């Protein structure tokens, strides 16, 4: 399979599944996918980031060498919703290394507090922060305070995830 050509196809669940199966647990193929994501080729970006997210869900270790670059992409002022949604979704499945936790947490807090951000990005950010906060009680308190403040004005999707995360504090 030619990855570049496959990512030029129309967005479809079947297409994603085929590409994810092709990449499998191969670090070289995942690196090739990451390079395509980093190129920010608008024609391929949505499908490429979706494939990246599903690859990481199956093989979380593949993301670790590329974590810092993917965080930087999410911080770009013109980062698309699809890019942020899929990359932050992928962060949920990864044990974020201690060195990177600060940058990932800053990104996720920024997304979570931004009411103009999509619900999916905010909810995935909440989960990533919850995962990081399990190792940092101060961060956990800050996260819970923020979630509780947002609950009265939050969407149903936000409230559902927030309640699950808040239950974990008990």
Q: TL;DR of this structure?
A:
This protein has ten helices and no strands.
Summary keywords:
170 residues; mainly alpha; 2 domains
Topology (elements, then pairings):
Blueprint: H1 3-6, H2 13-23, H3 27-38, H4 42-58, H5 67-75, H6 81-91, H7 98-113, H8 119-133, H9 137-150, H10 156-167
Helix pairs in contact: 2-4, 3-4, 4-6, 5-6, 5-7, 6-8, 7-8, 8-9, 8-10
Overview of this protein structure:
The protein has 170 residues and is mainly alpha-helical. It folds into two domains: 1-67 and 81-94, no CATH class; 96-170. The protein has helices at residues 3-6, 13-23, 27-38, 42-58, 67-75, 81-91, 98-113, 119-133, 137-150, 156-167. The radius of gyration is 16 Å and the shape is globular. The termini are far apart.
- Uncertain spans: none
What is the number of domains? 2
Mean pLDDT: 94
Termini separation (Å)? 49 Å
Number of helices: 10
Number of strands: 0
Order of SSEs:
HHHHHHHHHH
Could you say which overall geometry the principal axes of the C-alpha atoms support?
globular
Portion in beta strands? under 5%
Protein structure class = mainly alpha
Tell me the major beta sheet. Answer: none
């Amino acid at each position: 399979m030619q990855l570049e050509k496959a990512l030029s196809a129309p967005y479809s669940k079947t297409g994603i599944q085929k590409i994810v199966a092709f990449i499998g647990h191969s670090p070289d193929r995942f690196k090739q996918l990451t390079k395509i994501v980093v190129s920010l080729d608008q024609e391929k970006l949505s499908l490429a980031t979706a494939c990246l997210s599903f690859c990481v869900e199956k093989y979380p270790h593949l993301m670790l060498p590329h974590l810092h670059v993917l965080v930087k992409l999410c911080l770009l002022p013109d980062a698309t919703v699809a890019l942020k949604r899929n990359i932050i979704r992928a962060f949920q499945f990864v044990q974020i290394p201690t060195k990177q936790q600060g940058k990932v947490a800053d990104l996720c807090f920024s997304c979570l507090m931004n009411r103009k951000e999509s619900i999916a990005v905010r909810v995935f950010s909440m989960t990533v922060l919850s995962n990081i906060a399990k190792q940092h009680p101060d961060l956990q308190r800050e996260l819970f305070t923020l979630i509780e403040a947002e609950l009265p004005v939050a969407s149903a999707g936000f409230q559902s995830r927030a309640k699950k995360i808040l239950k974990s504090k008990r």
